[in-house]
Prior knowledge:
about 0% strand; 5 helices
Amino acid sequence: xxxxxxxxxxxxxxxxxxxxxxxxxxxxxxxxxxxxxxxxxxxxxxxxxxxxxxxxxxxxxxxxxxxxxxxxxxxxxxxxxxxxxxxxxxxxxxxxxxxxxxxxxxxxxxxxxxxxxxxxxx
Length: 122
C-alpha cells in the first residue's frame, strides 16, 4: 500500500493552481513593468528638456532611483488595496489593478510622445 509522498502534500498546501491567481500575478507583473517604464520615459523626457507637471512628484522625478522606489512602494500599496477590496467583494481587486494599468499606459504614451517631440525639436 502506497501513500502520497509528504513533499507533494506540502507543495499542494503551499500552491494550488487557480486561474484567478494567474490573472492577479499577470496584473501585478504588468503594473510593475509599466511603473519601470514610467520612470524610464519620465527620465528620458526630463533629459531632453521636458518638465514634470505633477507638483507632488517634481522633486522626486529628478532622482531616478528615488522615483523608482516611490513607484515600487506604490505597487505594493496597490496590491494591498486590490487584495483588501477583493476580500470585501470578490473580483473588485482586478478591476482596481486594470484601472491603474490603463492609467499608467496612458502616462507612458504621453511621456513617449513628449520625449519624441522634444527630441525632434532639438
